[in-house]
Amino acid sequence: MSDLVTGEAVPLELRLAKLPSRALALVLDGILLAAVGLGLLLLFTQVVPDVDVALASAMLIAGAVFVLVVIPTTIETLTRGKSVGKAAFGLRVVRDDGGPIRFRHALVRALAGVFADFLVTLGVGAVVCSLLNSRDKRIGDLLAGTVVVRERIPATTAPPPAVDPRLAAWAPTLELSRLPDQLAMAARTLLARAPQLAPEARDRLTTQLASEVASVVSPPPPPGTPPWAYLAAVLAERRRRDSLRFAPREGAGDGHVAAAAPEPRPASPHGDEQAERPRHDQGFAPPS
After folding, report:
1. pLDDT digits (tens, 9 = 90+) for 202-222
2. Residues 2 and 12: beta-carbon distance below 8 Å
3. Could you tell me if 179 and 45 are in contact, meaning their C-beta atoms sit under 8 angstroms apart?
4. Residue 191 domain boundaries
5. What is the pTM of this model?
6. Domain edge (last residue) among 118, 150, 182
7. Dihedral angle of Cα 198, 201, 206, 208, to the nearest 10 degrees
């Protein structure tokens, strides 16, 4: 999972593209660009068959720049980070803060690809840099301040937890500024995998993680709140505030914002019976 964080400290749940998928996308892009280059070469030989060597060399250089720099830069700029190969494999180039790239980002990546990543180093520079970088960046990504991510999330990804109605009045009062992104991601991962865990391990892990979250989040939950419900409420409230912060302000000209629809009650990882009756024997005691 990606550790991309926006300038407003909102974590983006994006999966970083790994070297194999990027290599496959590059091969497809290379085949298409080679076909375009071959077509231009045939066109030049037919249109201007009798030119001097200097003019022919200049035309070849111009054609190479057009194929290797102009075309990739234009495509990635217009598609906001997608080439044909990246679109085929569900990849996209984004800025380090998760935003869409612009012309300068695409141009720097294309120029670095020609002079540093692929042609001059025969691809060794891109491979070595990607293997040594924790976010699988090639030289062009380092210079442009970009990263390649996967857009296609597996269908088995569990939906984010929602606020339990019993905690709906308490959740908006939470102070979440001290909650680290890594801890929030760990809590969400645990809730998504809870149905797959053994009951003993599930209770132990949720209790431990709820205690860690409660040490940095205030106020404490109502007495008798199960650990899984506490984690679900904290994560859902965090997500709700982020969505309200960045959602389009509909009706802003009228001086009001559309009210958010109430969220459904989450399914309990302990079953329906325990969802209706909170457990008091799990050892979860948030600090007062």
Report:
1. 889 999 999 999 999 999 999
2. yes
3. no
4. 165-248+262-276
5. 0.54
6. 150
7. 180
- Partnered with residue 94 across adjacent β-strands are 100, 147
Provide CB contacts within 8 A for 229, sequence distance 6+.
164, 166, 167, 221, 266, 268, 278
R_g of the chain, CA atoms, integer Å: 26
Question: Which residue(s) pair with 100 in the sheet?
Answer: 94
71 membership: H or E segment, kind and range: helix 71-78
Q: Determine if residue 224 is left, alpha or beta; phi over 0 gives left, psi from -120 to 50 gives alpha, anything else beta.
A: left
Strands 146-150 and 15-16: antiparallel
Structure token pair of residue 94 = 């984004």
With contact defined as beta carbons under 8 Å apart, do 171 and 244 qualify?
no
- 101 and 183 inside one domain: no
Domain end point (choices 92, 121, 150): 150
Q: What is the pLDDT of residues 68-112, one digit of tens each?
A: 999 999 999 999 999 999 999 999 999 887 788 999 999 999 999
For residue 55, give the H/E element and its range. helix 53-65
Would you tell me how many other CB atoms lie within 10 Å of the CB of residue 203? 22
Beta bridge partners of residue 150, listed in sequence order:
15, 91
In a domain, 283, yes or no: no
Which residue has tokens 């293997």?
131
pLDDT class of 147 with cuts at 50, 70, 90: very high
**Is residue 257, in this structure, part of any structural domain at all?**
no
**279: nearest Cα among 203, 192, 168, 191:** 203
Q: Count up the domains in the chain and report the number.
A: 2
- Structure tokens, 233: 């409420």
DSSP 215-283: TTSBSPPPTT--HHHHHHHHHHHHHHHHHHHHS--TTGGGT--PPPPPPPPPPPTT-HHHHHS--S-S-
255 in a structural domain? no
Is residue 105, in this structure, part of any structural domain at all? yes
